[in-house]
From TrEMBL, chain A:
Source organism, top-level taxon: Bacteria
Keywords attached to this entry: Phosphoprotein, Transcription, Transcription regulation
Matching CDD domains: REC_hyHK_CKI1_RcsC-like (cd17546)
GO biological process terms held by the UniProt record: phosphorelay signal transduction system
Modification 4-aspartylphosphate, positions: D52
Transmembrane segments annotated in the record for this chain: none
Protein name per its UniProtKB record: Response regulator receiver protein
Gene source species: Chelatococcus asaccharovorans
UniProt-listed Pfam families: Response_reg
TrEMBL record, chain B:
Protein name as it appears in the record: protein-glutamate O-methyltransferase
InterPro entries attached to this UniProt entry: Bact_Chemotaxis_MeTrfase, CheR_C, CheR_MeTrfase, CheR_N_sf, SAM-dependent_MTases_sf
Keyword match Methyltransferase: yes
Native source species: Chelatococcus asaccharovorans
PANTHER family noted in UniProt: CHEMOTAXIS PROTEIN METHYLTRANSFERASE, CHEMOTAXIS PROTEIN METHYLTRANSFERASE 1
Single annotated GO MF: protein-glutamate O-methyltransferase activity
Length: 121, 283
């Protein structure tokens, strides 16, 4: 079972995403900011990260930079999932090493399509 | 709705769109017709049916057909098909058409055009080898509303996230308020026309690649056979016809047969290889 880390400061979003991804047969971890997400990655590097942009302590963009420099940190597929939906944000995320990008609001079809796009389902 | 009204509506839809109402038909009628009633200020579906029977208001007839036909579509729907179009069909067609440098593609019953634009995006990625070529991509549907949306190339937040890789969104789309618009260059590659598969479409000419996916499933067998044979007659002698994943000509017609090297594609009998076919073009 593949491991997916959901990083979002909204407990509601984490709960919704967890339901969708568990239905896609992922084992789920959760973190409410980038710093806590890095701690999860140090312990148990996931195959996938569903990543919010705007979070307290450490945002998703900064987290992605740290992740990609960690040992084994280039391996996870990172799918941004954010309300930031302009071209500049999307381009910036992709240049920073994201694999896909979901603009909120999302539904299960979009999550499934994006995870399929990066070869996770 | 009375049983008589239901029978009338079934016959009306079959004649106008080929749609055969199955066991889900009553549910579809009850869920979709109230919106048409509200749009035209009608009290209930019974009044709507009475107007359809009179044949006096073409706008309402068109609205009923549009409401009842399924317009589900998304970019790169069924990735395996598009991978084979990109890796097998298009390279072979380009080789086979090197002399004429012309390629014609038809996306039939294509709703708002995502299928045609998916092909256009693939071709845009092959641009260097297409210099000097004339490529026509025709996207047809019976819904004027869907066709107009396709012409504008405007898609919602949800539509651009189903099947479209983010890099292609960045490459080929711009933001237009809450919507995303496909580039003018790709819009110029695709033309849109109203074509009802129930009608004679022989005037469209011959195509090298035809996509007619996920529409035959809504027809009864007699209509499936009729449409398949007339679509196949529009296919170039060595062209490829692509059907939906659960659609097949087997048991309906022997006009086309499965291509062994392209799952989901069909060709004229004896034309399994695009560049090695010696069969005459269909008349």
């Amino acid at each position: 079972m593949k491991h997916c880390l959901i990083v979002d400061d909204s407990a509601v979003i984490r709960k919704v995403a967890r339901r969708i991804l568990e239905a896609l047969e992922f084992r789920i971890s959760e973190a409410e900011d980038g710093a806590k997400a890095l701690a999860v990655c140090e312990r148990d590097m996931p195959e996938a990260v569903l990543l919010d942009w705007n979070m307290p302590v450490m945002d998703g963009y900064e987290f992605l930079g740290h992740l990609r420099r960690m040992p084994g940190g280039t391996r996870p597929k990172v799918v941004f999932c954010t309300t930031e939906s302009n071209v500049e944000h999307i381009a910036r995320a992709m240049q920073a090493g994201a694999d896909e990008y979901i603009m909120k609001p999302f539904d299960k079809d979009i999550v499934a399509a994006k995870f399929q796009e990066v070869g996770l389902v | 709705m009375t049983e008589t009204d239901h029978r009338f509506l079934s016959a009306f839809l079959r004649a106008r769109s080929g749609l055969a109402l199955n066991s889900d038909g009553l549910y579809l009628v009850e869920s979709r017709l109230p919106a048409v009633c509200r749009r035209f200020g009608l009290s209930d579906p019974g009044e709507l049916i009475a107007i359809l029977r009179s044949g006096a208001v073409p706008e309402i007839e068109a609205a009923v057909v549009e409401a009842m036909v399924t317009q589900e579509t998304f970019f790169f729907r069924d990735k395996a098909i598009f991978a084979q179009i990109q890796d097998i069909a298009l390279p072979r067609l380009l080789e086979a058409r090197a002399a004429s440098r012309r390629l014609r593609i038809w996306s039939a019953a294509a709703s708002t055009g995502q299928e045609a634009y998916s092909i256009a995006m693939i071709l845009a990625g092959m641009a260097p080898s297409l210099a000097g070529w004339t490529v026509d991509i025709l996207s047809t549907d019976l819904s004027d509303v869907a066709l107009e949306r396709g012409r504008l190339g405007l898609y919602t937040h949800f539509e651009v996230q189903r099947g479209l890789p983010i890099q292609l969104l960045l490459t080929h789309f711009t933001q237009a308020g809450d919507l995303w618009q496909i580039s003018a260059a790709l819009r110029r590659m695709v033309s849109f026309a109203r074509v009802n598969l129930m009608d004679d479409f022989s005037g469209l000419g011959i195509f090298d690649l035809i996509l007619c996916r996920n529409v035959l499933i809504y027809f009864d067998d007699e209509t499936k056979r009729d449409v398949l044979e007339r679509v196949a007659a529009r296919l170039a002698h060595d062209g490829r016809l692509i059907l939906g994943g659960v659609e097949t000509p087997v048991g309906l017609t022997e006009t086309v047969v499965a291509c062994p090297d392209f799952k989901g594609a069909y060709s004229h009998v004896g034309c399994n290889r695009i560049s090695r076919c010696d069969r005459d073009s269909p008349k």
